[in-house]
Amino acid sequence: MTEKEFIPSPYTKSVLSGKTTYKSPSNIALVKYWGKKENQIPANPSISFTLNECATVTTVTYERLNEPSNSFFFDVALDGKVEGSFKPKINTFFERVYQYLPFLKEYQFKIETSNSFPHSSGIASSASGMSALALCLMEIERNLNPEMTQDYFNQKASFLARLGSGSAARSIKGSLVQWGVHAKIEGSSNLYGVEYPHKVHSVFQNYCDTILLVDKGQKQVSSTVGHDLMHGHPFAEQRFHQAHENLLKLETVFAEGDLNGFISIVESEALTLHAMMMTSQPYFILMKPNTLEIINKIWAFREDSKTHVCFTLDAGANVHVLYPEDEKTQVQQFIKDELAAYCQNGQFIHDFVGNGAQKIN
Ligand code: DP6
Q: Is 152 exposed, middle or buried (0-12, 13-18, 19+ CB in 10 A)?
């Protein structure tokens, strides 16, 4: 699919008003997206587990304007309260996607959104939030053009979500989603995420992710600024190359259920992401002392218990603890006994790999 194919044919139905709701999950990258080109094109391919519990529910109510307008009419509410601070981001998103969704200037919208995870938990809501909004907009488009296929619906939802936030492209479907062109992954695209097309061993089914809330403060560096720092970064080309290599290695790891191979790629990806931030200009350290304490505890526990617990990080201090479902009892006990103490207010969230977004009736 090319960008042009996402420009809709003239709408065949006329709809005066309606309401649609989607629940869309967050995701956790195993091979990280860090660095992008114009129009939200990733500098390297990435892959993530779709999560189940951490999600955004968004309802879009829409009513046709008497005549098409020159600007966008919408209000946004978070947890039932009007949230003016979200408007500029959504306006920019509407501007970016307008050519693909021309109905945006024909209706007024009410966007109501809420997250399952605590606000300002340091968990990025852009992936779940932007994908939920993109799905609602696609549902409206499906009402206007009912003959569209489910594949087109999903692809375009991911395409639109990407234009809102890159990682959101990976939140439409589960359970393992790849975004960005990779020579060995057929169907992979820079424009939208695809379900991982190769064999995945059953040990990765229901894989667990416990998110340790180490620092719930404001993000020190926005992801937009962070991605930008990869332009002219001294190690950028090598890093982009490494992401391609790691995806190739993961093919065997997933097929064979090689947990040790999985650990070494996933932890290295997390540390490389932070190494890129520490070696950019300006430079950042987004880990906190407790992030390092947790990493050391995980390594010691893994050694002693012979389990396959490992960690990954996003662009912040929180730690995602990953482990297979059949080690859940032991690892969750360890988290409670030894890691919770390093979390703000002892807070953590147990999550696991899910199947993607859902329409809510
Ligand atoms: C570190 O998707 O938040 O989580 O496209 O600017 O919205 P924008 O960036 P965003 O970047 C996420 C980066 C990451 C790694 C990842 O999820 O792959």
A: middle
